[in-house]
Every structure is written in C-alpha cells, then in structure tokens.
C-alpha cells in the first residue's frame, strides 16, 4: 500500500519521477502533474494529447464552407424533383435492351391471379328494405 499517511497522488508523483518504478510510456515532466482532486485521485496532464491542436479554423474557411453548403442545398431544393422525374422517365421507357423491356418481355415472376366475383341476388330487397344480402359466388377466374 505504501507508507502511512502517503496519498495516492504522492505515490504516483514519485513513480513519475523514477523512484523505484518503471518509466512511464511517455516521459512527463513532474511539473505537468495536476494537483490532487478532493477524492485523492491524481489527474495527469498528457502533453501529447494537445500537441496537434492548432486553434479554431480560419473564419474565411468557415464562411466559404457555409456558402458552398448553402448553394448546394438551394440547387438540390430547386432541381431535386426534376432530377428524380428524369431518372424515372429514363428507366421506365420500354425500348429494346433496357432492363424494364427485359422484365416486360420475360417477367422475373410468373403471374398467377385468382379473382372471385360475388353477385347480390336480392339487390332490390337489400337496397330498399335493408334486408341481409344473399350472395352468389362466381369464380375463381384465374389469370396466369
């Protein structure tokens, strides 16, 4: 545990100074250690984490980016519907060699439809008196 009365922060500082501990991964000068927190834990300031920070981007770059994004948004808002309609119209035209023509000539799924038709045999009583309809099932009519 360490000597009596010695805090965790003090032990860590001694380790960083090289007193009996293996050297840290990056050598940190003892002057860069932050003071102890109230809980007794040490926070160490790693210099390498902040070396690549150069400050905020120049205001010209921010303004140019904002203008480009604004113009791109306006262009998309104006022309989006016409672009989508143009692409759909181009793809839906039945012309030899197009994908839609191949699907139309040889459907990828064989269609199979059953249709049932119901005939109301007591239509006058149903419409005028509100009686229960009597239905006659016709079908199935099959399309394949």
TrEMBL record:
<keyword id="KW-0675">Receptor</keyword>
<keyword id="KW-0812">Transmembrane</keyword>
<dbReference type="InterPro" id="IPR002159">
    <property type="entry name" value="CD36_fam"/>
</dbReference>
<keyword id="KW-0325">Glycoprotein</keyword>
<feature type="compositionally biased region" description="Basic and acidic residues">
    <location>
        <begin position="8"/>
        <end position="17"/>
    </location>
</feature>
<dbReference type="GO" id="GO:0005901">
    <property type="term" value="C:caveola"/>
</dbReference>
<feature type="region of interest" description="Disordered">
    <location>
        <begin position="1"/>
        <end position="34"/>
    </location>
</feature>
<comment type="similarity">
    <text>Belongs to the CD36 family.</text>
</comment>
<protein>
    <recommendedName>
        <fullName>Scavenger receptor class B member 1</fullName>
    </recommendedName>
</protein>
<keyword id="KW-1133">Transmembrane helix</keyword>
<dbReference type="GO" id="GO:0005044">
    <property type="term" value="F:scavenger receptor activity"/>
</dbReference>
<keyword id="KW-1015">Disulfide bond</keyword>
<feature type="transmembrane region" description="Helical">
    <location>
        <begin position="59"/>
        <end position="80"/>
    </location>
</feature>
<dbReference type="GO" id="GO:0005737">
    <property type="term" value="C:cytoplasm"/>
</dbReference>
<dbReference type="Pfam" id="PF01130">
    <property type="entry name" value="CD36"/>
</dbReference>
<keyword id="KW-1003">Cell membrane</keyword>
<keyword id="KW-0472">Membrane</keyword>
């Amino acid at each position: 545990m360490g000597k009596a009365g010695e805090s965790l922060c003090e032990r860590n500082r001694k380790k960083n100074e090289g007193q009996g501990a293996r050297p840290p991964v990056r050598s940190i000068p003892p002057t860069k250690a932050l003071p102890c927190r109230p809980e007794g834990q040490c926070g160490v300031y790693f210099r390498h984490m902040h070396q690549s920070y150069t400050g905020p981007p120049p205001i010209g770059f921010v303004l140019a980016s904002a203008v480009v994004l604004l113009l791109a948004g306006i262009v998309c808002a104006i022309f989006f519907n016409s672009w989508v309609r143009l692409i759909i119209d181009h793809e839906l035209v039945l012309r030899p060699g197009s994908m839609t023509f191949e699907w139309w000539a040889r459907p990828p799924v064989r269609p199979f439809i059953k249709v049932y038709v119901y005939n109301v045999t007591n239509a006058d009583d149903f419409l005028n008196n509100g009686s229960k309809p009597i239905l006659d099932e016709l079908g199935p009519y099959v399309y394949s």
